[in-house]
């Protein structure tokens, strides 16, 4: 029998854009088993690229709901074939891509609660969805719905104060409004709307699992302070929406025991608990074990920044979500579109296409870059909404180029000052004292320590504290060139 066969554990699922993945974690928080299904490779009959269908308008992006269901079937069958002992699983929970939505057809609840253990889920749930291609987070086709929602809420800033974000095209409320307007029959034939996270939890529960506060904050519908649906926002999106969403719950809530389907088909223990699933970004905050005052940066195609906040200041950029670990606190998320690709471009132009050269250039220049500051927005940036490359010398005069080494440092310092500046705009303060009495942090103490990739150089705080106001002023200057002076 395989080594992983009989270990008490919890299963963590990830329903992401490109794959469904599971990890089994033992009592010491060691991950001892992993399995996954990649949509494009393992379910080619759905014809997705990167797990999605990009429609002809270039704005609409969807994923087939049955692809997600079948992926779960395949992962479970693979686990069974490997001898995985499901009877040792104490609880299942997980994460889903944020904002995506699933529309359950009238009558689906009945099917979910009476699943036959003899058949895979995909076969039984075939007719359970009123929308078979679900809107996902990459969709940007709902600008009209966004403007309508902001108007109904008293403006973008008012909506942000209420729900944590101004209206965003991918946010679920706007997606629901579009479906209601363009396909009213499908909407009225929908008995329940889930997020990808609560949809996945529902599959395990064998009944509708509630939306959790954290992922619910990515809908432009939830009042992030009161944790209730906003009547104004619901009303602006679609009729009878509250009953289709059901009441939201804390992200750590146990929502019930696993469906008997899994007990009979796979041998799960009937007492195995399903804990609410949440969004992938909130789950990352929990997984990285962030605490109040911590900040985490993910450097990818886009750079993403996560911050644990106690008193957020929702703004016109970035998002404030309810915190998945402590519902009294918040999580701020900022997305910077000019991430890795821009760094690679500057590396190629100024460091002979070599990361070694790039690092040498950084070492050969001083912190603060002699007062030279740069903005590198090769594509239209999200935070802030500006484009182009802008370089300023120590006297604040715009210059057309920097020496190569200065260019490299200006890029890195500029990208990180932007992160600090905009995180502060959402209420983050550098130097906060970590909170006490956090049960979650106690629980995860057992897990191996995350590896710090870097620590600040001595003197960094003084240099950048002094430079940041200058950076902020120059950013304003660039923005006023793009947008015109503030009204
Ligand atoms: C966050 O707001 C996003 O839209 C993305 O990070 C998705 O969650 C990716 F799954």
Gyration radius over CA: 24 Å
The proportion of strand residues reads 15-25%
The count of helical stretches stands at 19
Percent helix: 25-40%
CATH top level of the largest domain is: Alpha Beta
Write the CATH architecture name of the largest domain.
2-Layer Sandwich
Largest sheet: 7 strands, mixed
Termini gap: 71 Å
Tell me the domain tally: 2
Strands, total number = 21
The CATH topology of the largest domain: Nucleotidyltransferase, domain 5
Mean pLDDT: 93
Low-confidence stretches: 432-438
The CATH H-level superfamily of the largest domain is: ATPase, nucleotide binding domain
Category by helix and strand content: alpha+beta
Shape call = globular
Bound ligands, each once: 5-deoxy-5-fluoro-D-xylulose
Describe what this molecule looks like in 3D:
The chain has two domains: 2-282, Nucleotidyltransferase, domain 5, CATH 3.30.420.40; 340-424 and 460-478, Nucleotidyltransferase, domain 5 (2-Layer Sandwich). The strands form six sheets. Strands 1, 2, 3, 6, 12, 13 and 14 form a seven-stranded mixed sheet that branches. Strand 1 (9-15) and strand 2 form a beta hairpin. It is an alpha+beta fold. The protein is built from 19 helices and 21 strands. 5-deoxy-5-fluoro-D-xylulose binds next to helix 14.
């Amino acid at each position: 029998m395989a080594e992983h066969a009989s270990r008490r554990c919890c299963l963590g699922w990830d329903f992401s854009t490109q794959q469904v993945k599971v990890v089994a974690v033992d009592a010491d928080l060691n991950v001892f088993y992993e399995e996954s299904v990649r949509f494009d490779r393992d379910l080619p009959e759905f014809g997705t690229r990167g797990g999605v269908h990009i429609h002809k308008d270039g704005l609409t992006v969807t994923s087939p709901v049955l692809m997600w269901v079948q992926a779960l079937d395949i992962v479970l069958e693979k686990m069974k074939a490997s001898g995985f002992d499901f009877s040792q699983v104490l609880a299942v929970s997980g994460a889903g891509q944020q904002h995506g939505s699933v529309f359950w057809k009238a009558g689906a609840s009945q099917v979910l609660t009476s699943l036959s253990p003899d058949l895979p889920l995909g076969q039984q749930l075939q007719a359970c969805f009123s929308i078979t291609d679900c809107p996902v987070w990459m969709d940007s086709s709902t600008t009209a719905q966004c403007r309508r929602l902001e108007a109904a809420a008293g403006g973008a800033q008012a909506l942000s104060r209420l729900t944590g974000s101004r209206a965003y095209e991918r946010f679920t409320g706007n997606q629901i409004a579009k479906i209601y307007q363009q396909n009213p029959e499908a909407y009225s034939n929908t008995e329940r709307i889930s997020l990808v996270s609560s949809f996945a939890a529902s599959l395990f529960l064998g009944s509708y699992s509630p939306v959790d506060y954290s992922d619910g904050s990515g809908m432009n519908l939830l009042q992030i302070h009161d944790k209730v649906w906003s009547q104004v926002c619901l009303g602006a999106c679609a009729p009878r929406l509250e009953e289709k969403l059901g009441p939201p719950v804390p992200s750590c809530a146990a929502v019930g025991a696993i469906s008997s389907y899994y007990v009979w088909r796979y041998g799960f223990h009937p007492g195995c608990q399903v804990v609410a699933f949440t969004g992938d970004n909130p789950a990352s905050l929990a997984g990285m074990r962030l605490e109040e005052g911590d900040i985490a940066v993910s450097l990818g195609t886009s750079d993403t920044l996560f911050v644990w906040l106690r008193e957020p200041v929702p703004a016109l950029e970035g998002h404030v979500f309810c915190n998945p670990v402590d519902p009294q606190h918040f999580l701020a998320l900022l997305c910077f579109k000019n991430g890795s690709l821009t760094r690679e471009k500057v590396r190629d132009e100024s460091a002979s296409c070599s990361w070694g050269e790039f690092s040498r250039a950084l070492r050969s220049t001083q912190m603060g870059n002699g007062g030279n500051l740069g903005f590198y927005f090769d594509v239209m940036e999200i935070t802030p909404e500006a484009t182009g490359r802008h370089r300023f010398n120590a006297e604040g005069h715009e210059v057309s180029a920097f020496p190569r080494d200065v260019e490299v440092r200006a890029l890195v310092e500029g990208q990180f000052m932007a992160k600090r500046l905009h995180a502060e705009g959402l209420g983050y303060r550098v130097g906060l004292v970590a909170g006490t009495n956090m049960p979650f942090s106690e629980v995860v103490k057992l897990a191996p320590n995350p590896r710090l990739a870097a620590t600040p150089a001595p003197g960094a705080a003084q240099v950048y504290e002094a430079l940041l106001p200058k950076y902020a002023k120059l950013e304003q200057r660039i923005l006023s060139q793009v947008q015109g002076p503030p009204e």
